[in-house]
Design goal:
This protein is mostly helical. It is 64% helix and 2% strand. The protein has a 3-stranded antiparallel beta sheet, with no helix packed on it. α14 crosses α20 and α17 (456-483) packs antiparallel against α20. The longest helix has 37 residues, at 385-421.
Length: 594
Amino acid sequence: MRVKRILFKVAASVVVIVAAASVTFFAQLAVPGDRATTLMNLQTGQEKKWTAEELAPLNEKYGFDDPILAQYLDYVTGLFRGDLGTSYTQKRPVTEVIFGQLLPSLTLTVAALAVAWLLALGVTLLTVKRGRILSGLGSAWEALTASLPHYWVGVVLLVVFAVQLRLFPIIGGTTALGTVLPVLTLAIPLAGFLGQVTRDEFVHVLEQPFVTTARTRGCPTWGTAAARPAARRTAGDHAVRLGARRPRLGRRHHREHLRPAGDRAGAGHRGQHPRPANRVGHRAGGRGRVRGRQPACRPGLRGDRPQAGGGAMITKVAMITKVKVRAPLSIGTALSLLFVGLVLIAAIAPGLLTDRSPTAIDLASALQPPSWQHPFGTDDAGRDLLTRVIYGSRQSLGIGLGATALAFLIAIVLGFTAALLGGVVDAAITRVLEVAFAFPALLLALLVIAVRGPSLYTEIIAVGIGSAPGYARMVRGQVLAVRQAGFIEAAAALGHSRFAVIRRHLFPNAMRPLVAVLTLGVGQSIVWASGLSFLGLGVPPPSPEWGALLDAGRLHITTSWWLEILPGLVIVVVTLAVTALGRTLQNRLGGAAR
């Protein structure tokens, strides 16, 4: 049985690889322009209109004139032989180029993952369940770092540590010192996402009954009995061994075990020989066991009153039903609402926030640093940067909303179709999603832009298609979960039609928890779109779209830092505010599906 499962997985992987290669082949056929002309331009370094006689050798060498089916079969057979062709730019086999960059790429990836895990685990251990202030600071740090675009983090680190302080080289190279900034560029945003997962897992474990039991027995909250299960689920055994050595995780738990019998929590009668306190998970007495000093937040108990020695006989534990009370909006959520409201005003009526024109050129005021007259400074054409940021919010927010709506529309169609029809249809859609996951989302977006050309609507389509596979998988899982609920079966048993059950019960209850994900997706789409524009693949200049502003500021990164830092900071704050609203909706709608 296990061998069949392994063979099935291998066969499915081969199908996914062939499908991904097929998508790549047919996508490059859809790119506008003649392939032989493009290749000749790359080889000669000049762009002009070539004659058919000049292009004939290339067409014959690469088989561009052969039938499409023959080209495809030659491409697939070459793929299985390990022949990936020749790099047009480096004039070397592609396999040689890949293996030449494989070790540095793996080293950079592993180092970034290690640094991200250490940052995430360290912040979690220092802040979770440490009081309201520390917990709030830890959550704010994780939300902030998770909202940072990688490219902007790299720019900030480069400007501060390489250009201004000159601690690291501007061009990294292969030296150990040159890899510090690239590793931090990848690790800092990743640490935010990992920190959020780690914090949720720690909170989940600390609320488990065995941890509550350990507290009632007098064990410290951060004893290894509570810390290790959470750490194992998030960072692995190696992080557990590192974390358990810090004070209050290891030493305090050790002192709890070796405390004198009369003072130790869970100790027996006086004169009893010292023995370790019963650890969580070990067999302990049931009714009538001795209970040590209890915290003030213990559950309600019924039974005998405490006896001599500070102990009490537990006979019954009254189950307390928690009544959910909707908490008021926090300060962070209120500030997020206020900032998102300002961005909406800027997108709808930018004239209410500024009386300047985003296209007014004043060469005499070019590249001025931030001042009272120009709070964000000016660009190389003397245009007020704050005004351009305000007017650019319409395009950036429009891209975020449009791309997220498109992604969820595709996800709803694919997810509901797969979950409701099941069988062959579900398997086929799942394979399609796996093929899409085989491509990095950025590569999918680049594919769309290469076919359609850079524009505002192309950017919306590119970001939407790149985000859709992940949302489709979430929708499918949510529909499958709600479909098995009792009220769905009850509605069907009462005689409601299949369409009525889907429309009245399945669709609303499956979509309600995903509203928060939809909100979170808007912020991520804004970051994605600005990243494409930063690479010069988004809305072309002189558009004031936020990513285009960052792209224009790259030319002056060593002399005019505000052109990169301040628009990027606006992107970070907007993403952070939208993420905070999404988290609030997630908490309020998480258990509301009925």
